[in-house]
Amino acid sequence: MARLKLSLYGAAVLMLAALLPACGGEEGAAPDEAVSDRLNVLLITADDLGRTLGSYGDNFARTPNIDELAEKGVLFERAFVTQASCSSSRSSILTGLYPSQNGQLGLAGSLPEYRLKPGIATLPGLLRSAGYFTGILGKLHVAPSEAFPFDYRWADSENGAATRDIQQVRDRAEQFLTQARGKPFFLYVNLFDPHREFDAQSNQFMGFPADLQTADDIAPFPYLGLDGPAIREEIAIYYNAVSRLDTGVGLLLRLFEQNQLLENTLVIIVGDHGVPFIRAKTTSYEAGVAVPLIVVWPGVGVEGLRSEALVSTVDLLPTVLDAVGEEAVRSAGHSLRDVMWDTPPADWRKLLFTEYTSHATAHFYPRRSVSNGRFKLIHNLESQRANPIIFQGKARPEASTELDPVVVGAYETLAFPPAFELYDLARDPYERVNLAAEARYGQTLQELQDALLKWRESQGDPLLDQAEIDRLRRAHHELVK
Fold this sequence. Notes:
By secondary structure, the protein is an alpha/beta fold. Helices cover about 30% and strands about 15% of the residues. The chain is built from 14 helices and 13 strands.
């Protein structure tokens, strides 16, 4: 019955494809240029975007454009990145592999060896070989850049802050569409917002957002367990960046509508990891690895569906290849086609894995995690030493006007983690009470430990070797002397 519920948005694709005019600027393509009937791809990533969207139930987010997109496609309630750090996360989006498989263990440039292994297929490379015109707006931040053969590039250096000028992003997208000249295309748009740069300049950029939220307009993220004037001020600035992001997405969608492209374009929007606050980014906690993921796939899926399937960003590359009719390549993920309907198949993923090795140079502190949707296990591989990356910012326990003892305990665990952390996400969604030492959860702990070890062995995790952990720790230490 689910397949009978296809939206008109998707159902009309086959009929419209042959009739659509070529895209490209206000004038369109030349009359003699053939229009491709292959599905185009628009992949939008947002820096540091957690599930802080209206469509995900955030009452303080002003995100009408992204929320409208969710109504036209499938919103994934349980989507996760592979690692809550920019380069590593993006490497998985573009290769379909975990960082420990593809080699991008930390930020590009932080350690010379943190880069893709030779010979790994990438999404722009695969699509270009398939005849697609490829483009990137904003930062790539995965090394080496030669592994990503984009035909059109703008602001794809490590500093993608230029994309805060959302009008220029829209104009560059229009230029890209003009150059596509009727070919099928892949446009990878990386919006810098709401990346953490919390100052007056980033609060409003080029007039966006026009209506600023203040500390009086919002409340702190529930997972923080903190509150206070300085904390609210910082979070309000974040929400303003989310609003600017949403306006930028709206500009892109209107451009595609004007060129009659949405009916023949796979649209994906995803956060590269969670919010840039303590116990989120650069951790294995839910606030760091859980992200928004919205997919509008013409002709596939139930309009407005909120899927409960466990999905990972390693699923994006196989999804795109499936959508455009290309053969699958080696990947740790699966096409999302089967989970875009009312009832996911019985054999869909039952365990969700994430990892963390390093962020910037001084942030080597490897972890691995597994979740069955109810219980989550985090393995801290360097628990014998203190955590070196307690994320900076005003939103910290010492700035809070009230502190629950349970919350205090959670922040102590962040600073000095034990080897294993076990959380009941149904009863403790903010991961504050570690159950790993409680005897009644012994069987659950053992099952998840076994599953995590099996997964690490199956993917060839290099940090299974203690000597490799020691070597990487020394390499980072040498760089920060």
